[in-house]
Amino acid sequence: MYSFVIGECLVKICSDEKLGRVLVATRDIQEGEIVLKESPLVHGPAQIVGPTCVGCLKPLEENKYLECERCGWPVCKRSCQNQSGHRAECELTVARGSKVSIQHFYVPHPLYQCLLPLRCLLLAESDPARWQALMRLQSHDEERRGSEQWRTDRRGVAQLIPRFFKCDNRWQEDDILRAIGIIQVNGHEVPLTEPASVTIYSVASMLEHSCRPNLAKSFSDQGEIILWAPVAIAQGTRLSISYTDVLWTTAQRRAHLLQTKLFSCACERCLDPTEFGTFFSAVRCSGFRTSDQSSQMCKGYLLPCDTSTQGSAVGDDDGAEWLCGRCHVKQPGTAVAQILDRARIDIQAMQKQREDHCVKYLRHYAKWLTPNHQYMVEAKMALSQAIGGSGRPEHIRKLPYGKLMSKIKACQELIALFEKLCPAESRAFGITRFELHAALAELGRRGMESNSRSNTPAAGLPLLQESLLNANECVRMLTHEPSVLLESKICAQARMNAETLGRLLAGRGRE
């Protein structure tokens, strides 16, 4: 059953000349308030995916699956063949006259590219109300037409559906291509399964994009989208989410948006080369100095000379020169691209659970990358979790003081960055708050033990109070995460820890 609930008197739908329909706050929204909770219009497997259960969309293993008794599509258990989402392709497959037979389980299967477009197209007959809501969403047909992706879709899914399902006269090619466009432009990856499934929502599709959004996006265990406000939002503010990863550089974000959503982002963050003074996409000038310039090492940062073209092609650099904001020396884009490519390859190859690997990466690339560069932040996040085994008490208790302080320092630096760059990035915030809470709790415990032995005032209490604050912030940031995700388990642990700390501090207060 399709449904949506907009927080009481929170939002109104407005029109914008450039963006079309947008959602605007009708009153001040307090931090933590849910703005929208909406069930799917339609959902299905991702376009590029190996065989999954067509009922619950969980991945399947060879020789560990069943077949739908009616159509042959693979399912993980018998009840999944009766899921409402599967009825569309089931009936069409039965009408085809022969069952589906899936043979290969270790590579993406082309038939799975057809399922979500089919489920969209068949709504016209099975649920006209959802069909009308789907047809109101943008497909960017004109912008897509003639592109490489459009030609691939035309040669692939648009021809495979009528040929395989023997329904040549049921849909025109343009109908299928429009359904594919709606999926690509409006689809949300829902991380309830691995790999993630894709879901389309109606009202949530009206939210505009920003690389510094004011809403966070979570999902319920039933696949409902939950949009809520991690920070307060003033009345009259347009509401936004991010269609890309806010912890990518400007070039990467804009390239991804241009490729998948067909627009060149011009949000406040993309228009600010410094990204609110964080220099998240910048590199160090000194790392590119030649030997004859060593006596004049510059502490400035390099940014692309022409930021308007960032993201015009996939990659970190499009060949344009980079300019230092301090000494105004230019460096060729090719040289910068080589460093960034090497840093990307190394961060991908790095064993992120290894503390020594994280430290080595940070020390090595400190010469070329700014402290807040994407790859340095990624390594620092990994380090904050690797020190002390992701907040496990038995590991943290064994940490020497120096490493404990390194963990705290890394977490504090990350939180300060997130507050400037992406205050609505609830998952990164929540996980980092948990790591900081765990380290502060251990530091406070040691302080309390030391104070007890020396019979001095409890200097450890402020650390425990700060630990409690971070545990509560972790809970606030992760409270809407679905139970299947690690973030939900972290949230549950933080809640238990906060209750324990609260009782301890209350007892101390009565002494």
Strand composition percent = 5-15%
Oligomeric description of these chains: single chain
> Which sequence of strands runs across the widest sheet?
1-4-12-11
The rounded Rg comes to 26 Å
User: Which regions have little confidence, pLDDT < 50, spanning 5+ residues?
Assistant: 313-317
Indicate the structural class: alpha+beta
Global mean pLDDT: 90
What distance lies between the first and last C-alpha atoms, to the nearest angstrom?
56 Å
Helix segment count?
A: 18
Which shape, going by the Cα principal axes?
globular
How many individual β-strands? Answer: 17
Q: Main beta sheet: strand number and arrangement?
A: 4 strands, antiparallel
Estimated helix fraction: 40-55%
Give an overview of the whole structure:
This protein is 43% helix and 11% strand. It is an alpha+beta fold. Strand 16 (322-324) and strand 17 form a beta hairpin. The protein is globular, with a radius of gyration of 26 Å. It starts with a strand and ends with a helix.
